[in-house]
Write a structure and sequence with these properties.
With 183 residues, the protein is of the alpha/beta class. The chain contains seven helices and nine strands; from the N terminus they run E-H-E-H-H-E-E-E-H-E-H-E-H-E-E-H. Bound molecules: flavin mononucleotide. This is NAD(P)H-dependent FMN reductase.
Length: 183
């Protein structure tokens, strides 16, 4: 099973990247690629840019990585209650590629984490509502509140047992898809 773990962040110390890669590591015998938005940095979407030069290669690269994956594990950083600008720009450009849905119906675990009590619930709710309109096949959602208390960076794992078990149950749903995908 090929997993694309996506951090919807361009921070070099992204907590969502840590969470996405931890969640991916819970799936046995998987080929894992972890990406963040730095890899797909491009000019901010502008109608005239699209008319003049088309969709930038970086957005096409993002789409190609989605297409090459069997499942997606995505964790979004929350900026002012919604997507980070870095993620939104990649999402916007990718949505302009002709004749494709951004997420291409790939089974997805949709997550968010933040240092605060809501754990990025605002961006998670926005994405859960919007992604299905772009080929998003959301198998489950997960938030990790109080990241700094609930994630042990040196052990690279969730330190809150209840939340860790919840994530393990949710990633098991993706593992179970392997049987279906191989058929
Ligand atoms: C501009 C800005 C806005 C933010 N807004 C929120 C917010 O609305 N809710 C929240 O929980 N955290 C907010 N934060 C804190 C982020 O959750 C925190 O920076 C987190 O590390 C972002 O995830 P990342 O490290 O994966 O990029 C904000 C941070 C910035 C820089």
């Amino acid at each position: 099973m090929k997993i694309l773990a996506i951090a919807g962040s361009n921070s070099d110390t992204s907590i969502n990247k840590l969470l996405a890669s931890y969640a991916a590591s819970l799936i046995q015998n998987a080929e894992i690629e972890v990406v963040d938005m730095n890899e797909f940095e491009m000019p901010i979407y502008k109608h005239q840019r699209e008319v003049e030069s088309g969709v930038p290669q970086e957005a096409k690269n993002f789409a190609a990585k989605i297409d090459a994956a069997d499942v997606l594990i995505i964790s979004l950083s929350e900026h002012n209650g919604t997507y980070s600008s870095a993620f939104k720009n990649v999402f916007d450009w990718t949505s302009r590629i002709k004749d494709r849905a951004v997420w291409n119906e790939k089974p997805m675990l949709l997550m968010a984490t933040a240092p605060g009590a809501r754990g990025g619930l605002g961006v998670l709710e926005a994405a859960a509502k919007r992604f299905p309109l772009h080929g998003g096949n959301i198998v489950d959602t997960f938030t990790l509140p109080f990241f700094n208390d609930n994630f042990d960076k040196s052990a690279h794992k969730i330190s809150n047992d209840e939340k860790d078990n919840e994530l393990k149950e949710k990633t098991a749903k993706l593992s179970a898809l392997e049987i279906i995908l191989e058929k």
